[in-house]
Write a structure and sequence with these properties.
This protein is mainly beta. It has strands at residues 13-16, 19-22, 31-32, 42-45, 48-51, 59-61, 71-74, 77-80, 88-90, 100-103, 106-109, 117-119, 129-132, 135-138, 146-148, 158-161, 164-167. The chain has a three-stranded antiparallel beta sheet with strand order 3-5-4, with no helix packed on it. A three-stranded antiparallel beta sheet has the order 6-8-7, with no helix packed on it. Strands 9-11-10 form a three-stranded antiparallel beta sheet, with no helix packed on it. Residues 1-26 have low confidence and may be disordered.
């Protein structure tokens, strides 16, 4: 496994008056950086890529030479091609979490409103998430986005929560 365990980038958050609603893969969120560059519209924050105010599409790290259905290749990343693109994440092992199906090296959401998912680190999941195989799945549709900590740090706009980084609200 690389220095950056796979980023399960499903964070498709649309802020709606005090809550968050998970929807299509149309929103951008922080993710571990792959290589030295960040995708267009993102800026470096330590070992992460954080969306700038112009970043509007979901991005995930490319695994191998292809991207999941509905995404196009852009350097080391896969970028959602439209506002109706379903959420996707890099597959860890041979299975996908509940609510997702296999698509090559990826898992793609079965519905248009999936719960957010991140790779599990250690034996536990962050508060508000439950364990599903190698993944942590949000208990509620309005869960706060979490990502892995890299070198004990979090990107701009996130705070440490155990082995994870949670988005500041």
């Amino acid at each position: 496994m690389s220095k950056f365990p796979l980023q399960l980038f499903i964070v498709i958050v649309l802020i709606t008056g005090g809550g968050a609603k998970f929807t299509h893969a149309e929103q951008a969120a922080a993710m571990p950086r792959s290589g030295s560059a960040c995708p267009s519209g993102y800026y470096k924050s330590g070992e992460y890529c954080v969306p700038g105010k112009d970043a509007t599409k979901a991005v995930l790290q490319r695994k191998g030479s292809s991207c999941p259905s509905g995404y196009y290749t852009s350097g080391e990343y896969c970028v959602a091609s439209g506002d109706k693109t379903k959420a996707a994440l890099e597959r860890d092992g041979s299975s996908c979490p509940g609510g997702y199906y296999k698509s090559g090296e990826y898992c793609v959401a079965s519905s248009e409103q999936p719960r957010t998912v991140t790779q599990r680190h250690g034996s536990s999941c962050p508060s508000g998430y439950y364990r599903s195989g190698e993944y942590c799945v949000a208990s509620k549709q309005t869960a706060t986005h979490v990502i892995e900590q890299i070198d004990s740090s979090c990107p701009s706009g996130y705070y440490k929560a155990g082995e994870y980084c949670k988005r500041s609200e």
